[in-house]
Design brief:
The complex is a heterodimer of chains A (692) and B (123).
Chain A: H1 10-36, H2 42-64, H3 79-107, H4 113-133, H5 145-169, H6 173-176, H7 180-204, H8 219-226, H9 228-255, H10 259-280, H11 285-298, E1 304-309, E2 320-325, H12 329-335, H13 338-348, E3 352-354, E4 373-380, E5 385-393, H14 401-447, E6 458-465, E7 473-481, E8 484-492, H15 496-516, H16 520-534, E9 541-549, E10 554-560, E11 565-568, E12 574-577, H17 591-595, E13 598-602, E14 608-612, H18 614-617, H19 628-638, H20 644-659, E15 669-676, H21 681-688
Helix pairs in contact in A: 1-3, 2-3, 2-7, 3-8, 3-9, 4-5, 4-9, 5-9, 7-9, 8-9, 10-14, 11-14, 15-16, 19-20
Chain B: E1 4-11, E2 14-23, H1 28-40, E3 45-56, H2 58-73, E4 77-81, H3 85-94, H4 96-99, E5 102-103, H5 106-115
Parallel strand pairs in B: 2-3, 3-4, 4-5
Antiparallel strand pairs in B: 1-2
Classes of the chains: A alpha+beta (692), B alpha/beta (123).
């Protein structure tokens, strides 16, 4: 500002102020650059603020001690006065800038659209104050209506600035989240900041000097000399710092008594919520997923959230978005490379934090979709990564350490709930499967003969035990009329359900084909043809089929890849009937029929034949030893005088003894004994009996 | 638990799959993928050396059946050699020797390939 005497043209003043504005804008940006990137905890912000103010005050006092006073009447001012006023303006304006930007970080803690707007408006009004004051020369106030109007605007802008400074200083959300210890520290530092800022303001604005401007050492005169608009801005900013420190301290004091309660209630609420969910929503994954995505949004930690889960059942390795809150799942999928981010989170098993999505390749059009900052938290159990929780905000750098911690804690809670739900689901599934298998087991049982046919010439005994609920072993008997009995034992390769289906098919074929083609060669050829069509390539069936004449004891028997039938005659001679024959399903050509041998034999009374599946001979004891043919033949031999049931029981008992205490069948185990007693021993007895 | 392994070895035009341990329902997929790998690499002259094979279940036998047709269509074969007597017996009971070349030594199997002797199968 020029002196009283001469009036600089308004245009020169404007130019002068514009140049100043540019310079100080640069200063503002420089300070913004250095403070913005460091996200400090409140204690640190207050601590650094104190150091900054102290440094500024020391400099101001030192400069004021440089000789050369500002004398209003002295025009033009001495060069030293120009230098002093420029230095003081720069230091104090810089201090104001630093205060605003440091505290600005606190003001914008957990920023919302509204808080962003308030902050922006404060800056706008302060800038307007600068701009509208700039052309004003305090001596020209009455000179023109234009200047008067401008003065009106200037006053309005200053009032606006004060209003928004006030609005911004009551944003103290960060205090609520502060741990008790830090709260106490910040409180102490806050008091120091209040003292220092008020001291600065007192230094700037002489409280008791309202008289005519005379020879003064107060820095305000130097500042005013340098630029009145800048002085206004500086005073506004330092006032902001003072008021913000004041409101912070007051707020912290008011919060002190409730800190403990607050913390406890937060924890309790979270625990209760999780518990309720655990109990109620467990059975419904949809609801569970919704809970996972809505909680971070409802708690105000995020603007939108979505959840990706890698569905193991569907076999797709690409994670799918299973739930989204406050955002369309398809939009989230379009904007983010969910796969890549999930991949990184899953690989590192740590949270991925993208503070500014516009500089991340994996997010496209983040700004227009309201995804400016993004957290991706892997939901990791001890063994696997269930999925990833994405939480987004519509402002860059929106996630404070606090938010990240809180969302992290929630994510681990959510993981627990999701895993429990999965386990429960798996348990239900197991139980359902078990009941299905129990039904299958019953059905399969009924496919086996329920009772043994009774004959006077022979005795029969059989049993089948499946290693699992259902198995692939099969035996059956069918009276063909004309005194003949068809019998079969078969073993489908593999175990369990698939084997059980083929076993059922085998039963159908036996019941039907044995009637029309009882001859062993014909029968097995038909079976090979019929089953060959339905058997998978790597599945085969082994079988022994035979027809026994119940009157003569003539037996006709063929083996299709099955373990050989054991013959034991009354003298104890044993023989394994190892005739040629391929397993059913091994060959679908004529080779099967060509290689199939049919053996004929006529039983003598006391002869017996044992048919079994490899579950008997391949049973292994704990030492890994196989039961084998020798033990089988021996056990039959030593029980050969018994009827069929006795022989049968003896063999199984030997197997059980061999297996030891565990008695665990690793394979389906089936045994069928046919013992020939000879024709009519009863009649023979009767003939001998004189009483009849 | 899984005490089964397959080792690959090239011997002239043939690939030798040396199987070791117990081939059952749990380990069968290993042999399956080994044969698949050979097939995908265009190797169709396969010799399974069973000198270290201690046990084979029906699921293990099924592996041979699953691929034989395909391998033969490609002009190759799966030949089996050096089985322990007890293991051979399992193959034999089922009639495998009627469909597959099962020989004593690798050299025999190789010479069968060299002489271009076709398997015995009917179709």
């Amino acid at each position: 500002m020029g002196g009283v005497g001469e009036t600089a043209p308004v245009s020169t003043t404007i130019l002068h102020q514009a140049a100043l504005a540019v310079c100080f804008l640069c200063l503002w940006i420089t300070i913004a650059r250095t403070t913005q990137n460091s996200h400090l905890p409140p204690v640190q912000i207050f601590w650094r603020t104190i150091l900054t103010i102290l440094a500024a005050l020391v400099l101001v006092v030192l400069i004021l001690h440089i000789p050369g006073l500002f004398i209003e009447s002295q025009t033009p001012a001495a060069p030293i006065v120009h230098v002093k006023s420029a230095l003081l303006s720069t230091i104090l304006a810089g201090l104001g800038f630093i205060l605003v930007q440091r505290f600005g970080q606190l003001v914008r803690f957990r920023r919302t659209r509204r808080s962003e707007r308030n902050w922006f408006l404060m800056m706008l009004f302060v800038s307007l104050t600068f701009v509208t004051w700039a052309p004003l020369h305090h001596d020209d106030l009455e000179s023109s209506p234009l200047v008067l109007t401008l003065a009106g605007f200037a006053v309005l802008a200053a009032i606006g600035s004060v209003v928004f400074i006030f609005l911004n200083t009551i944003r103290l959300a960060w205090i609520l989240r502060l741990p008790v210890k830090q709260k106490m520290g910040t409180l102490g530092l806050g008091v120091v900041v209040i003292c220092l800022t008020s001291a600065t303001l007192l230094l700037l604005v002489p409280p008791f000097t309202f008289g005519p401007i005379t020879e003064q050492s107060y820095p305000i005169y130097f500042l005013d000399f340098f630029s009145r608009p800048l002085t206004l801005v500086t005073v506004l900013f330092i006032t902001f710092g003072f008021v913000y420190a004041l409101t912070s301290v007051l707020s912290m004091i008011f919060h002190l008594p409730t800190i403990g309660d607050y913390q406890r209630s937060v924890d309790e609420m979270a625990a209760m919520q999780a518990l309720t969910v655990l109990v109620r929503e467990m059975a419904d994954p949809e609801k569970l997923y919704h809970w996972v995505v809505s909680t971070p949004v409802d708690s105000g930690r995020g603007k939108a959230a979505w959840l990706t889960i890698r569905e193991l059942e569907s076999g797709s390795l690409k994670p799918q978005i299973v739930a989204a809150h406050n955002i369309e799942a398809s939009l989230a999928d379009d904007v983010c490379d969910v796969d890549a981010i999930h991949g990184e989170a899953a690989r590192t098993r740590t949270l991925v934090s993208i503070q500014n999505t516009s500089s991340d390749r994996r997010i496209q059009n983040g700004k227009t979709s309201g995804i400016m900052s993004l957290l991706a938290i892997p939901l990791t159990t001890r063994t696997e990564v269930l999925g990833t929780l994405f939480v987004s905000r519509d402002v860059a750098h929106a996630f404070e350490n606090e938010d990240i911690e809180s969302i992290g804690v929630f994510a681990s809670q959510a993981t627990l709930v999701l895993e429990n739900a999965r386990l429960l689901e798996a348990q239900f599934e197991r139980e359902r499967l078990a009941s299905e298998l129990a039904i299958a087991h019953d059905v399969q049982r009924r496919l086996l003969p329920q009772t043994m046919p009774r004959f006077s010439t022979m005795s029969l005994a059989a049993s089948s035990t499946a290693a699992q609920e259902v198995g692939g072993d099969y035996y059956d008997l069918l009276e063909l009329g004309d005194g003949k009995l068809a019998f079969i034992i078969a073993d489908v390769s593999g175990k369990g359900t698939s084997a059980a289906f083929y076993m059922a098919e085998m039963q159908g074929i036996f019941q039907a084909v044995a009637q029309i083609a009882p001859d062993p060669h014909d029968f097995l050829r038909h079976v090979n043809k019929a089953l060959g069509r339905s058997l998978e390539k790597n599945v085969f069936v082994t079988a022994i089929y035979g027809v026994l004449d119940c009157n003569s004891g003539a037996i006709s028997i063929a083996r299709a890849g099955h373990p050989p039938a054991a013959f034991v005659d009354v003298t104890g001679r044993t023989m394994l009937l190892r005739s040629g024959g391929l397993g059913i399903g091994l060959d679908r050509s004529e080779l099967f029929a060509q290689t199939l041998e049919v053996k004929q034999h006529v039983f003598n009374p006391g002869d017996l034949i044992a048919l079994y599946t490899d579950g008997v001979t391949e049973s292994r004891n704990p030492e890994g030893e196989e039961f084998g043919y020798d033990r089988l033949l021996q056990s039959i031999q030593s029980a050969r005088y018994e009827r069929a049931q006795g022989v049968h029981d003896a063999v199984l008992q030997t197997v059980d003894q061999f297996l030891g205490a565990e008695k665990k069948y690793l394979d389906d185990l089936t045994l069928l004994i046919i013992k020939w007693h000879g024709p009519e021993p009863a009649t023979h007895d009767a003939e001998d009996d004189p009483l009849l | 638990m899984s005490n089964f392994s397959v080792a690959f070895r090239d011997a002239g035009t043939a690939t030798i799959l040396a199987v070791c341990g117990e081939l059952d329902a749990h380990t069968a997929p290993e042999l399956e993928s080994a044969i698949k790998k050979c097939r995908d690499e265009g190797k169709s002259h396969l010799i399974v050396n069973g000198s270290e094979l201690d046990y084979i279940s029906s699921a293990g036998l099924g592996v041979f059946m699953a691929f034989i047709e395909e391998i033969r269509t490609l002009g190759g074969d799966i030949k089996i050699c050096a089985l322990k007597p007890r293991i051979f017996d399992v193959f034999d009971l089922l009639g495998f020797p009627k469909i597959y070349h099962i020989v004593e030594t690798e050299e025999e199997a190789l010479s069968l390939f060299e002489q271009g002797i076709q398997p015995i199968q009917g179709d």
